[in-house]
């Protein structure tokens, strides 16, 4: 009795913790999503958490100029609505930047140039003057504005020129750059796990050692090698083959390490008995190892795919920034502008680029956990 | 399902590629139509036949700037028959170094900082231009000799060579304000530095905040303050001291330099003078900082920033009505003329070819400048370019400041070695605005510079 009570209390704590963690994990994504459907100008002045409730905003409005004035009883009149059709309520207004909240809506006031202002709570305004308006006058108002959302950010990203081309480029880079390392690594992992040859342990140690080489160090030497080899065959240094090979090289150490650990953990009896039955190494690899290590292959495929898909550095170095070769990450960065000011684009583009990785992840995720555990825990 | 999405994407991408090509063939201003353009230099270009040749251009411009530059390139492509492709990157500084060293550099590179071009020239990775280009720049540009000097670097053997032509200038000595806010409060545009300081004190006494200063810029945080210091250096010391400072012949911890930093401190080290107080200076992003001018009530009355800053004004702000600028004035009590601080992008050859040579000639011809002037967001020091073609009144006024400057000096931090101008100077200014003393900051920067030698 006592133990079960304890147990339920513990379960409660576990549930609460899980709930807490789930919320903590989701908040950034939720914030990103809300930011992505907010107005660009609002985004830069207030945080996303303010977007859900109606807020009091202080706004400067400039009326249209002389082109839209009308003449009435010898006076020039400008009429319109401060909120421009949007919902909301004017709480206070002013006609000088020094006192933007001087008047209640419904009152009438005059400025230094004898221009009369009348503003209603629903935003309707009437500005009258004896002289023609040279240019629009400013009205300061404080308004209760309900939350407002827009899909403009998504429209900007989706309508940007060359996005489709970049999508294809990204796929062209990513798919071979995922398949090639897996192919090579699977062969290597089998050899390193089950074929006995001198220097095998050293080779494994070497591969593990390569894991710590920062790829940034190899960019210039690699590109130099490419342009020298390219010059011999008369082809460009920058191209898809180059980037596939680069990604393959950068991905291989981890791939071999992960797969070798998994494959060496497979039951040796099966392989032994297959050998006794006269199977060659290739047959063993194809008929036994490959099907059994599918979880590990899939989990590495997810890793590699996500890493290549999200990569910007290697793509800009080995593929370049030209219109025809720009990958998706490069294209989105280009949308940010020369000085990185348009960051509202980032929020929307994050949700657009996430589609393919999500598809890959959900397609292969049931193997992911199994593969990860199998690789590390023997 | 997946198949249909994929085919849709392919269709989309095909559609977009055809679009790109269509755009390249279209010229935004019909040759010969608008007589204000210098079409003669376009006609001359037609004599050059580069058909079948490819030219790659790499620069820092993205987004709308890229579009405008593509429009300019289209004229070169059409007149000569060359196939020109421009690529932009916001990490141009890193990428060009990788590409140049690896031997896969583009034909033409457009450097936002001459200091970086000098580094590459010293390694023998830039191609020197011929004497004809040098003479033309000297003759055609306002203050031509200074533009030539700015593009003259030592090659790997230590000989001075001329490496590039400047295309697109930025004007830095500008103070932005809202004329209506000045009218409401009864302030006048100051003509001298003394007036500007008096106005600053008056605004603070009236209960307002005079300045919006923001130094935040990601990894480059601190650079807006370097512009302040450079501008004040030119207003407190003769231009030759400035030149010596750039070459570190006048040390960074020289009292004259420390004095300029403290001048900046007069504005920025006063809670009453800056929006948000001293602490907000380094924490505010330079892109958000000008928005304070247009808040209700105004968060500040003035903002010192270069000519590109209207790109970060709120959408509804109309230049000339809601926002305007005045020249960051000089001291009436000091006889130093009206110095102007600016910057510019340098077009150089990183991979020599016939087309690259012709492209350099095109870049220094008036028509190339005019074609972008007429599209907005471009200032030119080219004397042959017709100022009537500036797309906005604001740009025209800035163009005049640039053209008639008695002293034009290039942004010092762009000329200093990268470790200083794009490193120690930036972090030093952040430390300074966070409360370190000007001497300490200057000594720290000088120490870094000594370590480079």
UniProtKB/TrEMBL annotation, chain A:
Q: Does the keyword Cell membrane apply?
A: yes
Q: Which SUPFAM superfamilies match?
A: MetI-like
Keywords (A to Z) from UniProt: Cell membrane, Membrane, Transmembrane, Transmembrane helix, Transport
Q: Which organism is it from?
A: Marinomonas ostreistagni
Domain (ABC transmembrane type-1) spans 167-364
Where it sits in the cell: the answer is: Cell membrane
User: From what superkingdom does this record's organism come?
Assistant: Bacteria
Q: What is its main location?
A: membrane
Query: Do the record's keywords include Repeat?
Result: no
What is this entry's stated membrane topology? Multi-pass membrane protein
According to UniProt, the name of this protein is: Carbohydrate ABC transporter permease
- Family note: Belongs to the binding-protein-dependent transport system permease family.
Looking up InterPro entries in the UniProt record yields: MetI-like (IPR000515), MetI-like_sf (IPR035906)
| Transmembrane annotation, as ranges | 12-34, 173-194, 201-220, 240-259, 288-309, 345-364
PROSITE patterns for the chain: ABC_TM1
TrEMBL record, chain B:
Task: Decide whether keyword Transport is in the record.
Answer: yes
State where it is primarily located. periplasm
Q: Which positions carry the signal peptide feature in this UniProt record?
A: 1-22
Q: Does the keyword Signal apply?
A: yes
Q: Name one Pfam family in it.
A: SBP_bac_1
What's in the keyword line of the UniProt record?
Signal, Transport
Q: Where in the cell is it found?
A: Periplasm
Matching Gene3D superfamilies: Periplasmic binding protein-like II
Q: Which family does it belong to?
A: Belongs to the bacterial solute-binding protein 1 family.
Q: What is this protein called?
A: Carbohydrate ABC transporter substrate-binding protein
Species of the source:
Marinomonas ostreistagni
């Amino acid at each position: 009795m006592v133990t079960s009570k304890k147990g339920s209390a513990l379960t409660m704590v576990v549930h609460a913790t899980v709930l807490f963690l789930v919320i903590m994990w989701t908040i950034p994504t939720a914030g990103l999503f809300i930011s992505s459907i907010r107005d660009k100008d609002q985004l830069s002045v207030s945080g996303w958490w303010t977007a859900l409730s109606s807020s009091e905003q202080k706004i400067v409005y400039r009326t249209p100029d002389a082109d839209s004035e009308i003449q009435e009883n010898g006076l020039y009149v400008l009429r319109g609505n401060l909120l421009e059709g949007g919902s909301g309520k004017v709480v206070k207004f002013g006609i000088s930047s020094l006192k933007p909240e001087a008047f209640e809506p419904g009152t009438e006031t005059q400025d230094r140039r004898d221009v009369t202002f009348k503003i209603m709570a629903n935003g309707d305004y009437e500005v009258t003057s004896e002289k023609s308006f040279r240019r629009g006058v400013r009205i300061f108002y404080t308004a209760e504005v309900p939350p407002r959302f827009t899909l403009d950010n998504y429209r900007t990203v989706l309508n940007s020129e060359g996005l489709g081309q970049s999508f294809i480029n990204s796929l062209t880079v990513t798919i071979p750059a995922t398949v090639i390392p897996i192919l090579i690594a699977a062969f290597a992992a089998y050899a390193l796990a089950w074929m006995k040859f001198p220097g095998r342990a050293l080779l494994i140690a070497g591969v593990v050692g390569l894991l710590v080489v920062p790829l940034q160090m190899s960019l210039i030497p690699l590109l130099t090698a490419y342009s020298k080899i390219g010059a011999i065959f008369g082809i460009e240094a920058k191209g898809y083959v180059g980037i596939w090979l680069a990604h393959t090289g950068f991905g291989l150490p981890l791939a071999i390490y992960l797969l070798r650990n998994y494959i060496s953990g497979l039951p040796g009896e099966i392989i032994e008995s297959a050998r006794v039955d006269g199977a060659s190494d290739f047959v063993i690899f194809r008929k036994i190892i490959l099907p059994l290590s599918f979880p590990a292959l899939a989990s590495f495929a997810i890793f590699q795919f996500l890493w290549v898909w999200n990569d910007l550095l290697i793509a800009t170095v080995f593929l370049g920034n030209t219109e025809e070769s720009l990958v998706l990450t490069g294209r989105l960065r280009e949308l940010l502008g020369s000085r990185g000011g348009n960051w509202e684009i980032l929020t929307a583009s994050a949700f657009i680029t996430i589609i393919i990785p999500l598809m890959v992840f959900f397609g292969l995720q049931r193997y992911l956990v199994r593969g990860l555990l199998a690789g590390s825990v023997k | 399902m997946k198949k249909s999405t994929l085919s849709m994407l392919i269709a989309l991408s095909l559609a977009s590629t055809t679009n790109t090509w269509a755009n390249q063939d279209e010229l935004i201003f019909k040759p010969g139509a608008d007589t204000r353009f210098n079409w003669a230099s376009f006609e001359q270009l037609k004599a050059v036949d580069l058909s079948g040749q490819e030219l790659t251009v790499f620069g820092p411009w993205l987004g709308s700037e890229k579009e405008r530059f593509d429009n300019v390139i289209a004229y070169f492509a059409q007149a000569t028959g060359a196939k020109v492709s421009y690529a932009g990157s916001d990490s141009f500084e890193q990428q060009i170094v990788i590409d140049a060293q690896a031997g896969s550099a583009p034909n033409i590179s457009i450097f936002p900082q001459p200091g970086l071009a000098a580094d590459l020239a010293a390694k023998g990775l830039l191609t020197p231009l011929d004497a004809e280009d040098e003479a033309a720049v000297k003759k055609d540009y306002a203050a031509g000799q200074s533009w030539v000097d700015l593009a003259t670097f030592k090659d790997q053997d230590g000989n001075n060579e001329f490496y590039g032509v400047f295309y697109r200038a930025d004007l830095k000595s500008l103070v932005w304000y809202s004329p209506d806010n000045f009218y409401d409060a009864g302030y006048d545009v100051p003509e001298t530095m003394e007036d500007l300081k008096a106005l600053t004190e008056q605004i603070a006494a009236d209960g307002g905040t005079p300045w919006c200063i923001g130094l935040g810029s990601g990894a480059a945080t601190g650079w807006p303050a370097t512009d302040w210091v450079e501008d004040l250096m030119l207003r407190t010391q003769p231009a030759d001291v400035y030149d010596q400072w750039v070459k570190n012949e006048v040390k960074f911890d020289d009292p004259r330099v420390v004095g300029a930093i403290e001048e900046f401190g007069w504005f920025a080290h006063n809670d009453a003078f800056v929006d948000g107080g001293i602490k907000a200076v380094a924490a505010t992003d330079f892109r958000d900082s000008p928005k304070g001018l247009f808040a209700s009530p105004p968060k500040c009355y003035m903002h010192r920033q270069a000519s590109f800053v209207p790109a970060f004004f709120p959408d509804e702000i109309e230049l000339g009505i809601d926002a305007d600028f005045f020249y960051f004035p000089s001291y009436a009590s000091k006889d130093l003329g009206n110095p102007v601080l600016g910057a510019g992008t340098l077009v150089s050859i990183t991979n020599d070819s016939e087309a690259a040579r012709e492209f350099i000639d095109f870049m220094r011809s008036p028509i190339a400048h005019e074609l972008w002037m007429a599209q907005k967001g471009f200032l030119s020091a080219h004397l042959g370019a017709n100022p009537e073609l500036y797309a906005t009144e604001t740009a025209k006024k800035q163009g005049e400041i640039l053209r008639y400057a008695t002293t034009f000096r290039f942004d010092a931090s762009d000329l200093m070695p990268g470790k200083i101008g794009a490193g120690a100077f930036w972090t030093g200014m952040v430390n300074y605005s966070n409360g370190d003393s000007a001497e300490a900051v200057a000594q720290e920067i000088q120490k870094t510079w000594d370590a480079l030698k």
